[in-house]
Amino acid sequence: MATRDIYTDGFDESAGKTIAATECPECDGDLRTEGGEISCTECGLIVNEYHLDHAAAPLDFPEGPDRERTGAPLTAARHDRGLSTEIGFRVDGKGNRLSSERRTHLGRLRREHTRAKWRSKAERNLGHGCTEIARLVSALDLDRSVREQASVLFRSAQSEDLLRGRSIEGFAAASVYAVCRCTDVVRTLGEVVEGARCSKSAVTNAYRVLNAELDLPAPPQRPREFVAGQVSAIGVPPEIERSAVEVAEAAWEDGVSIGVHPAGFAAACVEVACREQEVKLVQQDLAEAASVSPVTVRTHRDTIEGQREGER
């Protein structure tokens, strides 16, 4: 059988590794290809990059000889770490509709599965707490990582027997607030309480217990962290944000803002910056953005202006 070139009357998909250019568009230097990436030998400019890697290394499972892997990864956001079984309703795994007899049978299985879902009351409380954390994280528009860390913190509180006689919803909200305090996420206690299904005293008490018993690494909140959100909420120019941050930092260095409500003090900094640049605002709107009363904003504003007058 005679051999022939397969490309004489056919075609092959482009590999994307070559381009028509021979010189660098920036410095006219020579081009070189290395690992599917075309770059200049003189200035290092990447002219073209091959995104598909056909020589990827196989997956390695060092934990044992069984190399099979199925399902989603384990997560701490669910009480069973994502290993539970869910029974469907009207269709099977391939999308085909089930008969009425089969749906009735699955309904009975689903009922018994729900009854046997919790092995103990502690696991049931853990499931309720993880569900409440997921709802609160979604209501506050937080990242998935906050949900994971809050669920881990809730597990630690349950293992230390801190939930006995206390509100599960309170500890769920306190776990979310504690994660926000320990990370760079800016959320006030009022915002968390507004989305929680319990009273403010329950959340405050739960957070106090978490902070005392688990020794949380929660740094003090600085007023400058709340300036950006308040400026965006009341719709003032961006120049106000820079001035308010400077006022907040100066007050922090002088020790004026230590021990006060950080969001309320940040609102006062925003008002001082607006008054300096003659920008009009409604103090009630600013107080609502900070979740404080207008009296709090006026009190901190007078403190800042008095401190600045004394420095002059």
From TrEMBL:
One of its GO terms (biological process) is transcription preinitiation complex assembly. It comes from the Archaea. Residues 293-312 are annotated as: Disordered. Pfam families: TFIIB. SUPFAM superfamilies: Cyclin-like, Zinc beta-ribbon. Residues 124-210, 220-299 form the Transcription factor TFIIB cyclin-like domain. This is Transcription initiation factor IIB family protein. GO terms for molecular function: TBP-class protein binding; translation initiation factor activity.
